[in-house]
Specification:
There is one protein chain. It is built from two helices and 16 strands. It is mostly beta strands. It has a single domain, classed as Beta Barrel (Acetoacetate decarboxylase-like), CATH 2.40.400. Strands 1, 2, 3, 4, 5, 6, 7, 8, 9, 10, 13, 14, 15 and 16 form a 14-stranded mixed sheet that branches. β8 and β9 form a beta hairpin. The mean pLDDT is about 95.
């Protein structure tokens, strides 16, 4: 197993209602799951290959609940990545070089019936976790926008967080509202649905607690 570690910020938008039942081991809001996840890697490595400064977007779709399987996945990797960096990122996000069940990517891998060939494109990501804002653009594939949830009466920003001490993705995530238009081999549109903003720190064994 090749040693790896990533520190990144993420913005995830899926078709579920705010809070996302999946975070509580409940069925998805509409019975199926369509999600886009953007990762801005600040520091990382796969073996002796640096992954600092790279970006990745994952597009995922399941016909039912995630654990029921038959999912599809499409990964878009930063065009700036070298061949070795691309291989390392694809290995990590495909759940390889990881203890079973230790990371979200390893868990997801067991639910996919189809892993589509990746593409390599320029990726523009801006994420403010504490501000609950995000913007992600990949020409031809992805437009994501994240904003704070607003109180329906006052219009004030509403702040809510999910704390998962034993999570396999994050320990604390900020909740927001996301809207995405996804094109390509997996296509969908979602509007004003679940938005997740988090600082993540993962390695072969799962979330790194510091």
């Amino acid at each position: 197993m090749i040693d790896w570690e990533l520190q990144a910020t993420e913005f995830v938008n899926c078709n579920c209602a705010y809070g996302c039942p999946c975070q509580f081991n409940a069925p998805p809001t509409h019975g199926d799951c369509h999600a886009a996840a953007a990762y801005d890697i600040h520091k990382g490595h796969h073996g002796d290959i640096s992954l600092d400064g790279l970006k990745v977007v994952g597009i995922f779709s399941w016909p039912g609940a995630i654990h029921e399987g038959n999912g599809r996945a499409f990964l878009i990797v930063d065009e700036a990545a070298s061949e070795a960096q691309r291989a390392g990122l694809l290995s990590i996000l495909s759940g390889e070089d990881t203890e079973p069940g230790a990371t979200i990517w390893n868990v997801f891998a067991a639910t996919f019936a189809e892993l589509l060939p990746p593409d390599f494109r320029p990726i523009d990501i801006t994420i403010d976790v504490e501000g609950r804002t995000g913007k992600v653009t990949v020409d031809g594939y992805v437009t994501m926008q994240g904003v704070p949830i607003r109180n329906p009466v006052t219009g004030d920003e509403h702040r809510a967080r999910i704390d998962l001490p034993n999570g396999f993705e994050y320990t604390l995530a900020e909740m927001g509202s996301g809207s995405s238009t996804i094109s390509g081999p997996i296509a969908f549109d979602v509007s004003d649905s679940y938005g997740q903003f988090a600082h993540i720190h993962l390695n072969n064994r799962g979330v790194v607690h510091v």
